[in-house]
């Protein structure tokens, strides 16, 4: 923020030994993320030592990225997400039961302790069709291995070596040193192989990302056999790529959903007028606690505004990155080949030029009229353009279903343990310096009062 105030909309910094060009000019952002996203820019920089993620869409580049994206895109259509809704609803009901236990005892609740298991259960079930209850079954091998994978430490010796001595990365890769534990990668790769073999002999009616990827693999192979295409040019995902995407769904989905649900709950508890208005919308959309449907959940306007404002104040990632593939001049600024271009979403989201009193929580910033009057490139919680977050709608469904059930059943309140205002720790993701703690009070309906 200080660099922006001092140098304007374009400035440079060093990230370890890597020079970065930070850009807040929206015309340049549009060129980088949309207009020239293929011809001059590629995915974020690859730190190396990616272990199980080396074949994921997060790391893949250029034509390989396009191939993986084209295979995955059909799995995130609204039709596919509707098929997964029963899984999400089931775990949302479990979430309500877990919260009820605490609410009955009038205990404050650490939000990560309830939204973390909910997110983990949903993303694991929709990725692998593995039914777990991570809150009540912490010894489940899937739970244990996911937790190991999620224990990122940016101050670990491996990470520091990657940043300070990047020339050592090729040697470390030859030594099979990864930022993520090899045992975890082996566990999930074996799980994918086992599930895939099982489904060859057992009929499976479950809809999950793994099955959709396996189906696309079969479909592509059948096309090749019919057309006589060489398998070396296949568009189908390999087994290693399928494992990598499934892991990526868990890694990205868990953190985004559990953190954002904690943040939106905090803003509702500290803005009771907003919470009341949201409860009214939920009650009108689903009278008498009717079962949430996909279309109705996704079309609730005020809920969308509440989530949008939460993601403005605390985006999942503080900045977006692209790497320049060849020299380019944009708006008179020359960007040399191999330059890392960083778009600081967090600073954009708090720029008073676009957001009056930016620190205030105001869902009304996202009415239809307000959105249409604003430059779309000043709001980038999920990126923009062809490389935006592929799982955006899935994450929104997961979060909105959970919040619908929460609003049907509880009123959220701050307590003495609640940190007000939130202090954020900006590392790989934006998280509060202290866990968010709130009280959940059971809502009493008019029928119960009678």
UniProtKB/TrEMBL annotation:
InterPro entries: Cyt_P450, Cyt_P450_CS, Cyt_P450_E_grp-I, Cyt_P450_sf, Cytochrome_P450_3A
Organism this protein belongs to: Callorhinchus milii
SUPFAM superfamilies registered for this protein in UniProt: Cytochrome P450
Subcellular location: Endoplasmic reticulum membrane
GO terms for cellular component: endoplasmic reticulum membrane
GO molecular function list: heme binding; iron ion binding; oxidoreductase activity, acting on paired donors, with incorporation or reduction of molecular oxygen; steroid hydroxylase activity
Chief localisation class: endoplasmic reticulum
Family statement drawn from the similarity comment of this UniProt entry: Belongs to the cytochrome P450 family.
Pfam families named in the record: p450
Protein name: Cytochrome P450 3A8-like
Domain of life, source organism: Eukaryota
Gene: LOC103185125
Annotated signal sequence range: none
Entry-linked Gene3D superfamilies: Cytochrome P450 (1.10.630.10)
Cofactor(s) this protein cannot do without: heme
Transmembrane segments: 152-172
Residues that bind heme: 389
Stored PANTHER family: CYTOCHROME P450 FAMILY 3, FATTY-ACID PEROXYGENASE
Entry keywords, A to Z: Endoplasmic reticulum, Heme, Iron, Membrane, Metal-binding, Monooxygenase, Oxidoreductase, Transmembrane, Transmembrane helix
PROSITE patterns: CYTOCHROME_P450
Described function: Cytochromes P450 are a group of heme-thiolate monooxygenases. They oxidize a variety of structurally unrelated compounds, including steroids, fatty acids, and xenobiotics.
């Amino acid at each position: 923020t200080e660099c922006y105030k001092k140098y304007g909309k374009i400035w440079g910094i060093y990230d370890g030994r890597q020079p970065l060009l930070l850009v807040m000019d929206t015309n340049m952002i549009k060129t980088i993320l949309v207009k020239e996203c293929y011809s001059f820019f590629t995915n974020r920089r690859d730190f190396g030592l990616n272990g199980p993620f080396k074949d994921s869409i997060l790391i893949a580049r250029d034509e390989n990225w396009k191939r993986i994206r084209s295979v995955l895109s059909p799995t995130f259509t609204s039709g596919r997400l509707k098929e997964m809704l029963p899984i999400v609803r089931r775990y949302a009901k479990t979430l309500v039961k877990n919260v009820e236990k605490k609410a009955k005892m009038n205990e404050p609740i650490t939000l990560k302790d309830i939204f973390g298991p909910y997110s983990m259960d949903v993303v694991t079930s929709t990725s692998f069709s593995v039914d777990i209850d991570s809150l009540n079954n912490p010894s489940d091998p899937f739970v244990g291995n996911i937790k190991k994978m999620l224990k990122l430490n940016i101050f670990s010796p491996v990470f520091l070596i990657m940043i300070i001595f990047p020339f050592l990365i090729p040697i470390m890769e030859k030594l099979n040193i990864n930022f993520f534990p090899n045992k975890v990668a082996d566990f999930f790769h074996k799980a994918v192989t086992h599930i895939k073999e099982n489904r060859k002999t057992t009929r499976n009616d479950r809809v999950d990302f793994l099955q959709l990827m396996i189906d696309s693999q079969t479909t592509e192979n059948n096309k090749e056999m019919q057309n006589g295409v060489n398998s070396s040019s296949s568009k189908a995902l390999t087994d290693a790529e399928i494992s990598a995407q499934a892991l990526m769904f868990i890694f990205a989905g868990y953190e985004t959903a559990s953190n954002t649900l904690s943040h939106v709950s905090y803003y509702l508890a500290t803005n009771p007028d907003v919470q009341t208005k949201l409860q009214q919308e939920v009650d009108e959309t689903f009278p008498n606690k009717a079962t949430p449907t996909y279309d109705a959940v996704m079309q609730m306007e005020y809920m969308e505004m509440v989530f949008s404002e939460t993601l403005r104040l605390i985006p999942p990632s503080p900045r977006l990155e692209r790497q320049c593939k060849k020299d380019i001049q944009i708006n008179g600024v020359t960007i040399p080949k191999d330059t890392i271009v960083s778009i600081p979403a967090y600073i954009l989201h708090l720029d008073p030029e676009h957001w009056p009193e930016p620190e205030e929580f105001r869902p009304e910033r996202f009415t239809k009229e307000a959105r249409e009057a604003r430059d779309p490139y000043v709001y980038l919680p999920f990126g923009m353009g062809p490389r935006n977050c592929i799982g955006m709608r899935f994450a929104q469904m997961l979060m909105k279903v959970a919040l619908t059930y929460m609003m049907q059943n509880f009123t959220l309140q701050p307590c003495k343990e609640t940190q007000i205002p939130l202090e954020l720790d900006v590392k790989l993701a934006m998280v509060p310096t202290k866990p968010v703690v709130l009280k959940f009070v059971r809502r009493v309906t008019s029928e119960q009062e009678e």
